[in-house]
Amino acid sequence: MALADRLAGYALSVDFRSLDSRTVKETKARMVDALGCAIGAYGEAPARAARRAVSKLSSRGPSTVLGSGAGAPPDLAAFANGLMVRYFDFNDTYLSKEPAHPSDNIPPVFAVAEAEDLGGREAIAAAVVAYEVQCRLCDAADIRHRGWDHVNYGLVSTSLAAAKLMGLEAGRAAQAVNISLNSHIAMRQVRAGELSMWKGASFANAARNGVFSAYLAREGVTGPTPVFEGEMGFFKQVSGPFRLDVDKFGGRLGRFKVNETYIKFWPAEYHAQTAVWAAIEVMKKAGRAGQIKEVLVETHEAGYTILAKDREKWRPATKETADHSLPYMVAMALLKGRVDNETYSEENIHDEKNLDMVRRVKVVEDKRLTQMYPAGGMPNRVTVTMADGRKVSSQVDFPRGHPLNPMTKLEVEAKFLNLTRKHLGAKRARKALDELWRLETARDLEHVLGLLKVAGRGSKA
Prior knowledge:
Blueprint: H1 3-13, H2 21-40, H3 45-57, E1 63-64, E2 71-72, H4 74-87, H5 106-115, H6 120-140, H7 152-166, H8 170-183, H9 202-218, H10 234-239, H11 273-286, E3 292-299, H12 301-307, H13 319-322, H14 326-336, H15 346-349, H16 352-359, E4 361-365, H17 367-372, E5 380-386, E6 391-396, H18 409-424, H19 426-437, H20 446-450
Helix pairs in contact: 1-7, 1-8, 2-4, 2-6, 2-18, 3-4, 4-5, 4-9, 5-6, 5-7, 6-7, 7-8, 7-9, 8-9, 11-14, 14-16, 18-19
């Protein structure tokens, strides 16, 4: 049986009633986290542009555009909402042969579930499926070193999540995968050199295509098959051959992958999370940042390749490059004792004092740290040499938010409230949070998503 058919069969087999309580709890935590990220980014330029584009294409539809409360077709809502979730680089992560931000799947899940008049239980089950499919594909094959973006696996996960919510039978669910995966392959250039706004939109676009492909499959449109194994298929053109044992997926012989994903404590690319923590620890011992003479960051291969290899990472010109710049993020953690969304403001990324600290940073790959990754962590070691000759060093392997160093429920809530309070007001932010924690009791999603409407004039812009 073709892989697309086996994945479709799995997706349709998962039911809310088969989910264990921990999986439900962890899925809701990722939903809280993702929606907090989305509302936090509501006023940012790319988010506003996406909403304007959606409103010009269609001014009505069954799915809610987060924050504005406007309606849109589900594929367009998935795009606008997905861009908001991703923009701050603050949503969750999964690291394996291929990295991913699996809560990117949550906007299309909500968009289709709302369009299909479904409730919280169905949305949770579909999100679990999307996480499972994307993360298992990430376990199977590395595509970034072959020049392809990780969001290509999202073409599979989002089309199957949408097909599941739409109640498609297995054959048509597989066709949704065939259409989506054949037609919308994304290149890794989106994360190379100077990064653009599309860095935060790449998965949102994959989700848009995945959702639309499922709607086409519902109406009987067929796609190229076998899309993975075929003569000109995904294995041949993109990933290379790999084996994927669907019988070992969560709910069968395995544990659901959503439990193995990481919630971010800092708004920074995940391979830098431990470097930020290490820099903060160093400064507790070292004293004044103004006395730092040199900074050595020893990292693993992915940390170097993704965050330090390109010359643009050493003087970032955009927010998107700065939150993927290891030298910049370490420098700011040393200077400020934290990394937050203001770290990437125009003022900060061009501030000469900040850039002077960046110039003191050296980043190298430590093969021993690479060997630890990812099962032994995503380790970074930061060593500063002070003006008086002292050397102070700290190594952190597992950042806060990793399953082996998890954030508490209160920390997840604090993150959500800090991101949403200024847009929703404290009272409504708290109410929205409480409703999300009991999402499995919601018979429809309109009320929950309505609580996320941004207050004040111009909320639809």
